[in-house]
Structure formats: structure tokens, C-alpha cells
């Protein structure tokens, strides 16, 4: 009897073990399929699972290590975080509630400034009183890069609760770029996100795509599911009101962008407070004929589309990105006073060749003057080139007359 019961028990338990193995095999099979599906649908989609693995190998990272510098990984589509700062260090030297009067002592004005500071001095890790704006800026090394970043950074300095993701189209972490980003005091992340060579070789290369994909990757990898995403190129012009307009985006908000194409504007067409169509001089059979700077997406809404991505397809980046998040016309909120105001401009910086400056004397001597530092700095940024044999001869002017640089050392 006892042995009969034992054998029934044995049969039952072996059946149970077989069932467990079956469940595991099934789960494993499906998990694998999901990965394959994910990769085949978007062959270049960042593989978040693989990234997670990489990160855990590097040692677990949490909010407290925010200011660490990270080692460089030179693989396309992998998340290369160069530098991060999660704390808001901004000082707003230009804010005063009212202009100081002659009776007002300077200390009172100082106190006014200090009263305003706490609204900005929050960390991105703490509970923000307002939704965070994740402002994604693709940028690339060229002689105008640092000038653009300074101009944009000084705009963003006025915007509270903003995290600036600066994704640089290069495979090295630019120290020069970081040096400038740090100075603004804005919470930021600097990524290195090179355009794959295969696209760079194209005549119509998809500019800024690898960068924006890397930023999407950072948002996902860091589990950011509240706040708002905005793509702001390094050469555009942003009016401060834009930020308060997009901050409370429910799903996707849209607004006009000035200086676009042959109509000089790209905008949704709004009737009775609803977006009913688009006004853009390059329809190109796009479902969403909008500019990259003409929309913002809430992160709650973005999180509903874990495979959302931006294709390496010049001219169709916005359209396909918005398709990939399953946007519907009725989901769009018109902003900027029912799209009657232009709060963002597609300005472009004229680029010109770096001039060569000819310095035939021993350059080290110039370090005794300010000129050594100034010229070296610009050379590092690619703003100019220095040569011993070619270019425009460097000369000095002293009391109206031109002298060779060697004049200072004779
Ligand atoms: N960009 C980039 N790599 C490039 C060219 C451009 O990352 O090789 C960035 C650039 O800094 C800008 C965005 O992509 O933020 C759009 O590029 P650009 O302003 O040249 O294009 P536009 O939209 O003005 O024609
Ligand atoms: Mn541009």
C-alpha cells in the first residue's frame, strides 16, 4: 500500500517536473522570438536588453553616481554616456524682481535673487514640482559647434526642470564640449553617438538620427516614463514661451516652426481648436509632414511604444518616428495659441572653411602672451588652423602700425 502510494507520488512528481521544464522551454522560446522580432522589425533598433547587460557588467549604476565619468564604448548603437550631471547648479545672475533703485541697497537685490533660486535648484533625481523636459540636441564636431552650444545653452539656462541630452555625432567623448556643457549648470547628459559610416557616405545623409536614437535609448535605459521629450537641434532658435507650452503635453503637442521651406513655415492647420491638416511646402507623401522642432511627446505616451524609433531615412525622420509611436490625428494638441504663434525658428548657421593662420616663429613663445592660449583653443575646436608655411601671415598692430609677431620677443 505504502509502496503503491509512493509510486503514485513519484509518477505525479515526475509529471510535475516535466511540466515545469515544458513551461521553462516555452518561456525561453518565446523570449528568444521576441528578441528576433524586435531586431527584424527595426534592424537598427537599439537592443535595450543587450545594453542592460553591458551596464550591469560595468557595475550597477544608480542615481547617486550621476556625476561619474564613464568609459568609452566604441560600438555603433550602443549607449555611450560620456558625462552626466544630475544636479541643477544654475545661477541666474540676470534675474531681479524689479530693477534696483538708488535707495535699494545691493543686499536687498541679492536677497531677491536668492528668493528666486530655490525654484531652479532642484535635482533631476528628486521629485520635480513640474514635468521634466528632456531636451534632445544632436550636435556634431565642426568649427561652429561650441558657439552653437553656448547660444543654445544660454537659452536653456532660463528653463527650470530641464534635462539636456546632448548627443554628439562622434565616436570620442569631446572634452571641449563637456567643458562648456558643465558651465551652464543645467542637468545634462553628453552622449557619443556616431552616424554609422554606411550612412555618412550617402549624398543625403540622415543628419542627427544616430544622435536622437541614442537619446531615445538613454530615456528607455534609464526608465524615464514621465515628463516630455523634445528634439531641439543645436542651430535652431527657441523662444522661452515654447517650454511652458510643451511641458504639460498629454500625448503629442504640435506648433508652427518658422523659416521652414518654401512657405517659410511648417505648421499644423487648426480649426476650432483641433488639428485637421498640415501646411508644409514639402508634402512628399508624408502622413505627418512636420519639422523635428514642431512637436513634443510625453514620455508616458512614448513608453506605450517600446519599439518606437527614428529611421536612418533623410527627410522622413519625423514622419516615421511619429508613425512608430502610433500617433492619431485626434491625439495631437495644438499649442502656441492654437498654432498662431511662432515660438521656434529653423535658423541655420552659415558654415565657412576654417582659415589657416601662418605663424613661422617659434609658437611656444606666444605662450608668454595671451595669443598662445587663444589660438591653441580655437585650433582645438577646429575654428582655425595654424601653419608654419601657409595661410594668412599673423601680424600685430601697435599704435596703428603693423608689426611681425616676433616684435614682442626682440
Ligand atoms: N547633425 C549631426 N551630424 C551631421 C550633421 C548634422 O549630428 O553630420 C546634427 C546638427 O547638429 C543638428 C541636426 O543634426 O542639430 C540637424 O542637422 P542640420 O542643422 O545640419 O540640418 P537642417 O535640419 O538644418 O537641414
Ligand atoms: Mn539645422
Automatic annotation (TrEMBL):
InterPro entries on file: Glyco_trans_43, Nucleotide-diphossugar_trans
Keyword Glycoprotein: yes
Localization in the cell: Golgi apparatus membrane
Active site: 318 (proton donor/acceptor)
Transmembrane segments: 12-31
Glycosylation sites (chain numbering): 338
Family matches, as Pfam families: Glyco_transf_43
Residues involved in Mn(2+) binding: 235
GO CC, alphabetical: Golgi membrane
Keywords: Glycoprotein, Golgi apparatus, Manganese, Membrane, Metal-binding, Signal-anchor, Transferase, Transmembrane, Transmembrane helix
Stored Gene3D superfamilies: Spore Coat Polysaccharide Biosynthesis Protein SpsA, Chain A
Pathway: Protein modification; protein glycosylation
Reactions the enzyme catalyzes: 3-O-(beta-D-galactosyl-(1->3)-beta-D-galactosyl-(1->4)-beta-D-xylosyl)-L-seryl-[protein] + UDP-alpha-D-glucuronate = 3-O-(beta-D-GlcA-(1->3)-beta-D-Gal-(1->3)-beta-D-Gal-(1->4)-beta-D-Xyl)-L-seryl-[protein] + UDP + H(+)
Enzyme Commission code(s) on record: 2.4.1.135
GO molecular function, one term: metal ion binding
Record PANTHER family: GALACTOSYLGALACTOSYLXYLOSYLPROTEIN 3-BETA-GLUCURONOSYLTRANSFERASE BETA-1,3-GLUCURONYLTRANSFERASE, GALACTOSYLGALACTOSYLXYLOSYLPROTEIN 3-BETA-GLUCURONOSYLTRANSFERASE S
Protein name per UniProt: Galactosylgalactosylxylosylprotein 3-beta-glucuronosyltransferase
Organism in which the protein naturally occurs: Anopheles darlingi (Mosquito)
